[in-house]
Amino acid sequence: MSSGQLPRWVDFGLIPVLNLIAAFLVSGLVVLLIGENPLEAVRILLWGSLGFGEGVGFTLFYATNFIFTGLAVAVAFHAGLFNIGGEGQAYIGGLGVAWACLALDHYVPWWVTMPFALAGAAIMGAAWAFIPAWLQAKRGSHVVITTIMFNFIAAALMNYLLVNIMVKPGSMQPETRTFEAGGKLPFLKEFVPGIDFGTAPVNLALIIALLASVAVWLIVWRTRLGYEIRAFGANATAAVYAGISPVRVIVITMLISGGLAGMMAINEIMGSQHRLLLEFVTGYGFVGIAVALMGRAHPVGIVLAAILFGMLYQGGAELSFEKPAITRDMIIVIQGLVILFAGALEHMFRPALIQFFTYSRSPAEQAG
User: Fold this and answer.
1) pLDDT of 336-357, one tens digit each?
2) CA gap 125, 101 in Å, rounded
3) I want to staple 59 with a disulfide (CB 3.0 to 4.6 A). Which of 198, 215, 267, 314 is the partner?
4) Are 195 and 291 contacting, i.e. CB atoms less than 8 angstroms apart?
5) CB 289 within 8 A of CB 77
6) Are 353 and 6 in contact (CB under 8 A)?
7) Is residue 72 part of a domain?
8) Torsion sign over Cα 118, 152, 294, 44
9) Alpha carbon distance 334, 329 (integer Å)
């Protein structure tokens, strides 16, 4: 361990745990200020997310969305890119899912529709990420700015399509018709005997998300492309000197990132809502940034962080129901604190830990 570095178990394990503890301590103070017992609030939150089958089901359902968006952000991170357009890419990915389901649900079973819906989601999400990627690679436009702008464009485009073109005939609601059985993913409880998730819509998209995590690990750490992505992200100048094309790396990385974000729509559109409607993303793309940061841009860490945020979403809903003084806005504050400590204050404990582990080494190790 050289000066300024930490053991991997500290960097990938201890620091995220410390950040999480700090976030919950501050959240506890907020809960205490409004006159509620923080320990009781934690008990309700844990029970609401993990204490019964339906709560676990909703936790896993939310976690599925966060896995997709967290992976999307993480892949871009490895190339030194900050893709915060997951909202728009997931939104447009919903179009790919809806087109496949609307075209096939009358004629084929769900397991025939699913590959087309999955491909449509990935292709549409990647296509929405392509223009910001090309502008970054060819024109130097910062990907942060362009992906933010494309989030708003995606929302406006979806509003136009659902109000004027894809709306169900005779309906005043901006949404498509409900899919038939051939356009609906089966719930996970139908495949896991003995487990009752109640009314929770957790479905086969969870398995797809876990498979996507394995695929990302293989691509980033076990392929030549992944090596080029990580090399470019670590030192772009040295990577170019070594013969790595920056245009190729930026465009391919953003295509993969956008495709992963678009695949989030398979969970919401084909797995839960069974129709395309407005605002189905509801902030999942932005939470994916915190998930990627807390998970250290590694698939295993992202899965664990996604489950944590799934617990906050589901447990927070139960907490606001059981404790009316802790409103839904308060739950958002708690979630925001976790995001703050996982993101903006991620390095708060690092200097002290580096100093501690540097001085705790033996003289022989320091000399080495």
Assistant:
1) 887 777 666 667 777 888 888 7
2) 17
3) 314
4) no
5) no
6) yes
7) yes
8) negative
9) 9
Residue 321, Ramachandran bin (φ over 0: left; ψ between -120 and 50: alpha; else beta): alpha
Task: Give, for 288, the enclosing helix (H) or strand (E).
Answer: helix 284-294
Distance, CA of 79 to CA of 125 (rounded, Å)? 18
184-218 pLDDT, tens digit per residue, is 999 998 887 778 898 999 999 999 999 999 999 99
Helix (H, G, I), strand (E, B) or coil at 176: coil
Look at residues 56, 14, 81 and name the one whose alpha carbon lies nearest to residue 310.
56
| Within-domain flag for 321 | no
Q: Which amino acid is at 163?
A: V
Place of tokens 């395309």: 276
Q: Is residue 282 part of a domain?
A: yes
The answer to whether residue 313 is domain-embedded is no
Q: Phi, psi (5° rounding) for residue 187? A: -70, 155
Tell me the residue range of the domain where 240 lies. Answer: 61-306
Gap between the Cα atoms of 363 and 349, Å rounded = 24
The DSSP 8-state label assigned to residue 203 in this structure reads B
Amino acid at 335: Q
Q: What do you get for the CA distance between the two ends of the chain, in Å? A: 10
**Residue 4 token pair:** 């300024």
Global model pTM greater than 0.85: yes
Residues 6+ apart with CB under 8 A from 254: 76, 81, 83, 129, 130, 132, 133, 136, 143
